[in-house]
Amino acid sequence: MGEPAYQNVADAIRADIEARRLIEGDRLPTVRELAQRFGVPTGTVAKAVDVLRANGVIVARHGRGLYVRSFGRIVRSSPDRLSKTWWGEGNSIQDRDTNGRLRAVHVVVEEAPASEEIAEALGVPAGAAVLTRARRFAVEDRIVQTAISHLPLDVVAAAPAVGYTGPGPGGIYARMAEAGLGPETFRESLICRMPTSAEAEVMALPRGTPVIAVTRRAYTSTRRCVEVNEMVLDSSAYELEYILGA
Q1: Which CATH number is correct for 5-68, 3.40.640.10, 1.10.10.10, 3.50.90.10, 3.20.20.10?
Q2: Other residues' Cβ atoms within 10 Å of the Cβ of residue 81
Q3: Is the pTM for the entire model greater than 0.85?
Q4: 54-63: per-residue pLDDT in tens?
Q5: What Cα–Cα distance (Å) separates residue 200 from each residue in 74, 183, 196, 209?
Q6: Mind giving me the DSSP string for 85-105?
Q7: Residues 81, 188, 214, CA angle at the centre, nearest 5°?
Q8: In a 10 Å sphere around its CB, with 0-12 CB exposed, 13-18 middle and 19+ buried, how is residue 197 labelled?
Q9: Helix/strand/coil for 39
Q10: What is the greatest pairwise CA distance in the chain?
C-alpha cells in the first residue's frame, strides 16, 4: 500500500522547504489553496498540517495563517544538566538545555494544598500547604514545557529566596544548598502520554502530539525529599539524551 494522501501532501510541502522554494518565515498558502493545488479535500491538508506542526516544520499563528518554521529540538542531556558543578556555579538548568537560544520563562509562586502523592513524597500531611512554583518555558517564542515544583514550607523558611519568582543565580537548588538543604541525588520518572486539553491549549499542540511527563524528586544527603517537580514537555520539541557509565 502507498502512503496516505495526507502524508504525500506533507512530504510535498517539506520538499518545497528543503529545496528552499519556501524558507523560514514564509507564509504558506491557505488550507483551501493547498487542497486545490494537490487536488485533495481540505481535511487531508489539515492532517498534513498537523504532521508538519508536530515535527516543528511549520507554525500556525492565530489569525495570520501558516508559516515555515525551523525549530531544532532541544537536547535535554542527563545527568550533566543536574550536576551540582553546573547550578552550584550560578548556572541555570534550562540554560544547559537551550545552549544560548532565546528563552523566556513565566513564573507563578504561591502556597497550595499538597495532594496525597506529593504529601507522601515530601513527608507532610495530605492537604498541608506547600509552596508551588509554576513555570512556563518558551524557546524562540514557542512554549515547550510547563513545570510545577512543590516544596515543604520549612525548606522555604530556611531558604526564603526559593519563594521569589527570580531566586537568583543557580536557581532554587543553589539557594537550598546555601541553607544546607541542597539536593545531592535526583530521581526522575518519565511517561509518554497524550496531553490534557489544558496542556494542549497552553503549548498550542497539534492534534495527535504526545507529551513527555517527567516527575523529578530531589533528595538531600540524608535522603529527605525537598522538592517534587512535575514537568510536561512537548515531545516534538525535545530530544532526551542519557549519558551513563558502564
Answers
A1: 1.10.10.10
A2: 18
A3: no
A4: 877 888 777 7
A5: 19, 32, 6, 9
A6: HHHTTT--HHHHHHTT--EEE
A7: 95
A8: exposed
A9: coil
A10: 66
Q: Residue 1 pLDDT > 70, yes or no? A: no
Summarised one tens digit per residue, pLDDT across range 167-213 is 999 999 999 999 999 999 999 999 999 999 999 999 988 777 899 99
Q: Which three cell numbers stand for residue 71?
A: 525549530
Nearest-angstrom CA–CA distance, 234 and 213: 9
User: Which residue type sits at 33?
Assistant: E
Give the span between the Cα atoms of 71 and 235, in whole angstroms.
13
Using CA atoms, how far residue 14 sits from 21, 28, 68, 115, in Å, is: 10, 12, 10, 45
| Residue ranges of domains in the chain | 5-68, 74-242
What would the grid cell of residue 33 be? 489553496
Q: Yes or no: is domain 74-242 CATH 3.40.1410.10?
A: yes
The continuous run of DSSP H or E covering 148 comes out as strand 142-151
Q: Please state the separation of Cα 123 from the chain's center in Å.
A: 27
